[in-house]
Amino acid sequence: MSSSFPRPKRAGEDFASTDYNDGGEDSSEHKKPRFDLRNPSALAADAPEEDAILDADEIGRRGQRVRRKAVNLEGYESDSENEGFSAHIEEKSARKRAQNDTEDDDMFAELQEDFGEEEVDGDEVIHKNKKSVRFLRDDEIEGQVASSKSGGALHVDLGKGASHVDEEESGSEVGEEERARVDDVVDEELGAGGKKKHAPLLDAFNMRTEQEEGRFDDQGNYVRKAADPDAAYDSWLEGVSNKDIKKAKEAAEQRDAERKEKDRMNDSILTADVLKTIIINLERGETILEALARLGKGLHRKPKWQNKKNKKNAAQDIEMTDEDPNEVARRKAIDSLTGAADILMGRGQIDIYDTEREMLTRQYRNDTGEDWVDPPASGVTEQGPAMWEYRWSDARDGGDAHGPYDSVMMDSWKNAGYFGEGVQFRRVGDSGPWTGTVNFL
Fold first, then answer.
1. Which of 382, 400, 426 delimits the end of a domain?
2. What is the mean pLDDT of residues 37-62?
C-alpha cells in the first residue's frame, strides 16, 4: 500500500554525493549510476581522485564537509618523522665510510707487510690501480742518433761515384714544394735528390722534433699535444724564416747596446753642464717649447709666387741648403735643446719643457754655487749675415710676421717687385718699430 504523503525533496548535490554502497557487496547490483556534476555527460568516479588540482576545486568538494567540533592541526605537525629520516641518512653514510676504511686497511695491509711500518700513500696506490698512461723519455726511445741534425741537403752524383751532403740552413726561404719538385733534366730514378739546387732537406735521425709536438707512450702510440688556444695571435709570424728572425734579433741587440752606451754617456754629464746648454739657447722669460717654436720659424720656405715665376728655369731659384751657416746653427741649437731636455727629463724633471729661463738659472746657481753670467756672444741670429722678417700693414693674413730670411733673398724679392706698398720690415731680434723702407745689402 502506497503512502499518501509526498516524497521529501533533497538537494541535487547531496543526492549525487550519497553513497548507496554501504549495504555491502550485494547492494552494488542495485546501485544507480551517478553522473559527474562538472561533466554531466560522464559518470562520476567510484573513488575520490587524489589530485592536488581536483582537491582544490570547491565544486566537487561540497559534499565533503568538515565534521563539527573538529580540531584543525594544519601547521602544528611534529617534525619527528623528518628528524628520523635525516638520522637514517647520516647513519647510512657512517656505515658506508666505515666500510670504505676497512677496505683501504685491507688494501694497504699487504703493502705494509712488504715495506714494514713505513707510511704508504693511499692516493698514490689508488692512482696506480687506475688505468694511466706513461710517456717515454727521449733516452728510452731506441735507435736514435743524438748527434744527427736536420737541414742538410743530399746531392747524388753518380758520375763521381759518391754522394755528398751540403750543410744548408733549415730556415731557408725555399718552400717544401719547390724542393720536392723534380725538373725535366733530373733523372727520374734519382728523383729530387739529383737536383743541383734546392735539393730536399734531410731529417735528423732522432725523435727530437716529434717530441716537441707530442709524446710517445709505453705502447708506442704517438699522442699529440693539445692545440694552443693562443696560436692564432702568432699568425703574423707565418712566412718569417729563421734567417729573418736572426737578423731582427741582432738588430735589436745592437740597438740595445747603443742605448746602453748612450745612457752611460748621459749619466757621465753633470747637471750643471746640461743646464748651461739650455740657458745659452734661451732668451729672457722663454721656455724650451717657446725657443723651439722660435727656431722652427727660421726654416726658409720660398713663397709660391717665386716657385711659379721660376718654374721654367730652376737654376735661378735661391734655395736654402744644409750648407747654409744660419741653417746649420739653427738645427744645431734645436738638437742641443732637445737632447739636454731629454737628459733632465730622464733625471726626474718632467716639466723641463715648460720651465722658464730664470728658473733654470736659479737651479744652476743651486747646483754650482755660482751666479749665471751670460756669455758675450749669444743668440743664433748674430752668427752670420743679418736676418729679416716682414709683414703686411693691412693685416691681410692676420698680421703675422714672415721670416726670417737673409739679406740676399730679401733684396732679390725687392728687385723682382714682390714688395710693393703696404709691406713693413724689421731685423730679427730687434724689438724696435716696423719700417717700410730698408736697405738689405
1. 382
2. 60
Number of domains into which the chain is organized: 2
Q: Percent of the chain at pLDDT above 70? A: 53
More confident residue, 25 or 188: 188
Range of the domain at 429: 385-441
Q: What's the rounded Cα separation, in Å, for the pair 379 and 29?
A: 134
Determine, yes or no, domain membership for 3: no
Per-residue pLDDT of 203-218, as tens digits, reads 777 777 777 778 888 8
Say if residue 200 is exposed, middle or buried (CB neighbours under 10 Å; 0-12, 13-18, 19+).
middle
Domain shared by 330 and 427, yes or no: no
Question: Virtual CA dihedral for 235, 241, 246, 249, nearest 10 degrees?
Answer: -20
Q: Is residue 434 part of a domain?
A: yes
Beta bridge partner(s), residue 427: 388
The pLDDT of residue 132? 73
User: Do 248 and 377 belong together in one domain?
Assistant: yes
Kindly report the CATH number assigned to the domain that includes residue 429.
3.30.1490.40
User: How high is the pLDDT of residue 64?
Assistant: 54
Whether residue 379 contacts residue 317, with contact meaning beta carbons closer than 8 Å, is answered with no
Lookup: cell for 317: 731659384
Across the range 401-425, mean pLDDT stands at 79
Looking at the predicted structure, is the pLDDT value of residue 106 above 60?
no
For the chain, the average pLDDT equals 70
* 161/173 Cα distance (integer angstroms): 31
Reported for 235-241, long-range contacts at CB under 8 A and 24+ positions apart, including other chains, are 241/171, 241/172, 241/173
Are residues 295 and 321 located together in one domain of the fold? yes
Beta bridge partners of 223: 215
pTM, whole model, 2 decimals?
Answer: 0.34
CA 257, CA 65: separation in Å to the nearest integer? Answer: 101
- Decide if 20 is inside a domain: no
Query: Based on the domain organization, do 303 and 423 belong to the same domain?
Result: no
